[in-house]
Write a structure and sequence with these properties.
This protein is an alpha/beta fold. About 35% of the residues lie in helices and about 15% in strands. The chain is globular and about 50 Å long. It binds iron/sulfur cluster. Iron/sulfur cluster binds next to helix 1 and helix 4.
Length: about 220
Amino acid sequence: MPLTQPPRDCPLCPRLVAFRHEAQRLHPDWHNNPVPYWGDEAAALIVIGLAPGMKGANRTGRPFTGDYAGDLLYATLKKVGLATGEYRQTPSDGLELHNTLIANAVACVPPENKPTPAEQKTCRQFLTRRLGEQKPLAYLALGRIAHDSLLTALGEKKSANPFAHGAEHALSGGARLFDSYHCSRYNTNTGVLTTEMFEDVVGRAAAYISRPALSLPS
Ligand code: SF4
């Protein structure tokens, strides 16, 4: 049966496999493997990031856990009611997601946080199968690569749904896509993304999936 999550020792991207193996050699106590999706399996909102950060999800094995991007993402999810508990940068912190699943466009840590187009395409097969099993009400794409990879996985037209921070797209499949700049330290340090900008988008996505009149697309 085709996999909806990459296997732990996925061999499909030679450059990323070599990078993982080097990380395993340098940091044998780290996760250093594809990072699985995390959250509510029947979520109405799916958050799509770019790829694991070297000292974040690649180290801890949970998406957005262990580096700054997670500090902002989880604080915001808590603020809008999509997470409860304390986020302490470790998978054992007891944090829980509600109606929310987090995935990445690419499951392995890439050098300099830059997966190649070929790596994005290769890893998309898992995301495509996973999304084929689920009919969420909404997606939240963190950055252009996540946005584009998600649209391709869903068979949606990029020309009809261009990426822009704060944009909302009514997808032909029935779900709504919310766009945000990625919540990375680089983007917040440079002022590209502020906490207020991020909270606005995540808050709109949370409000959208909470509207009582909505039902799952058929
Ligand atoms: S990025 Fe995805 S497809 Fe490539 S090696 Fe990692 S898990 Fe496999």
